[in-house]
């Protein structure tokens, strides 16, 4: 298979488009990741209690019948904005002393296509990728089809990534 060729601007964008830009260089034992499992379970419970994973709430949002989901998403955006502002202002570091770096991303038309596909999938299935596991955990096993579809979509994107516009 022949390697694709890129111009310098393409390489510059690709360097910021890579996965794990801020990945830690520290090595930890396997049980170090249990904290993420704990936070994930807690977060899943919060999602369930706040009805964030409710198919009915998501359908209400897309039909513009309720402010519930818009309020949750809006408050999450405000918390993220404030957090990023504070991290930048005080030059906060990770708990291991590593620098936190934010990279600017340039807008491109692929973001519009991706957002439309993501939103369409969200509206059709009543689930975005985050709460899929919580939905399955509540006994909505039919959501496993959505999870497998999300995994397949991610794999397809990874396979065709070099040929797609970025």
UniProtKB/TrEMBL annotation:
Q: Specify whether Oxidoreductase is a keyword of the entry.
A: no
Q: Which UniProt keywords apply?
A: Membrane, Transmembrane, Transmembrane helix
InterPro entries named in the record: Sulf_transp_TsuA/YedE
- Ranges that cross the membrane: 36-56, 68-87, 112-134, 140-160
Name of the featured protein: YeeE/YedE family protein
A Pfam family reported for this protein in Swiss-Prot or TrEMBL: Sulf_transp
């Amino acid at each position: 298979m022949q390697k694709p060729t890129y111009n310098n601007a393409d390489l510059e964008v690709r360097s910021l488009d890579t996965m794990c830009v801020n990945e830690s260089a520290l090595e930890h034992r396997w049980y170090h990741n249990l904290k993420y499992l704990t936070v994930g379970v807690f977060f899943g419970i919060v999602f369930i209690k706040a009805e964030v994973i409710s198919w009915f709430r998501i359908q209400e949002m897309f039909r513009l019948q309720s402010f519930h989901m818009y309020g949750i998403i809006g408050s999450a955006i405000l918390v993220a904005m404030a957090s990023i502002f504070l991290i930048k202002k005080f030059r906060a570091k990770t708990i291991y002393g590593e620098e936190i770096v934010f990279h600017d991303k340039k807008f491109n038309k692929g973001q519009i296509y991706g957002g439309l596909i993501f939103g369409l999938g969200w509206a059709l299935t009543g689930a975005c990728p985050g709460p899929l596991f919580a939905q399955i955990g509540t006994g909505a096993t039919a959501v496993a089809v959505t999870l497998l579809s999300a995994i397949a979509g991610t794999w397809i994107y990874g396979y065709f990534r070099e040929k797609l516009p970025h």
